[in-house]
Amino acid sequence: MLDGVHVAEHVLLVAVGIDEQGNKHVLGMREGASENAVSCRELLCDLRERGMQTERSLLVVLDGSKALSKALREVFGERALIQRCRVHKERNVTEQIPKELVPSVRHTMRQAYASRDAVRATKQLENLARSLEVEHPGAAASLREGLSETLTVMRLRLPDELVRHLSSANLIENQIGSVRKLSERVQNWRDGQMALRWTCATAMDAAKRFRRLKGYRSLPLLIKALRDHDHHLGLAPETQAA
How far is Cα 108 from Cα 121, in angstroms, rounded to an integer? Predict the structure, then answer.
């Protein structure tokens, strides 16, 4: 899971990983002036150089950042299966429509996301976008942007509980919340090094209270789906085991 948090004029990109037993780990952090593709790519390259396995497919959950998506494709290519956070997508759409339309639009989006059929969900969301595009083209464009990536875990045919917890960035958002609380208390950030050190310390302290991912017993099904994707990409068995 990848996300960014603003600390003064700095942006700290944070990567949290989930292992096969459902345990969560802070994998890395990168400071930059903005959440752009360069900073994102450097974070991903740093993870790879420090030993993170990138030779096989992996699922990556994002808040919806285009820069993060671009960097992932540049570094991992088709091996990165990107899941856009549905909570962020719903918020982005509903913030661009009148209040009286919010309940019905929210209901339609959640109904689509609750479906176990990605084809049907895509059709529902496309129909919703068409209904919005004349009066609210911004909301329609927001809904269509990255629409397919909001349904990635659905296409992997995982159990409902696992889908629920891997279809949003809430897990990493909770940790980011600890960093935000820290940044609100500090009045004078001297430089980027201070922001990075303090954010790292806060993230590692929050990691002590990590609990295992809910639905972790179903993770073997996700791993199998990722290895099937390896096979689809033509990755050799010895590469998959690297």
Answer: 10
Residue 87, judged by CB atoms within 10 A of its CB (0-12, 13-18, 19+), counts as middle
Q: Which amino acid is at 35?
A: E
Q: Provide the CB-side half-sphere exposure for 87 (13 A, CA).
A: 13
The model carries a pTM of 0.86
- Kindly report each contact of residues 222-226 with a partner whose C-beta sits within 8 Å and lies 24 or more positions away, as own/partner: 222/59, 222/156, 222/158, 222/162, 222/166, 223/20, 225/156, 225/157, 225/158, 226/56, 226/57, 226/58, 226/59, 226/81
Question: Contact, 64 vs 88, CB < 8 A?
Answer: yes
Cβ atoms 59, 72 nearer than 8 A? no
Would you write out the chain's pLDDT as a tens digit for each of its 242 residues?
988 877 777 788 889 999 999 999 989 888 876 667 788 889 899 998 998 888 899 999 998 777 888 888 988 999 999 999 999 999 999 999 999 999 999 999 999 999 889 999 999 999 999 999 999 999 999 999 999 999 999 999 999 999 999 998 887 877 677 766 766 777 777 787 888 888 888 888 878 888 899 999 999 999 999 999 999 998 866 544 43
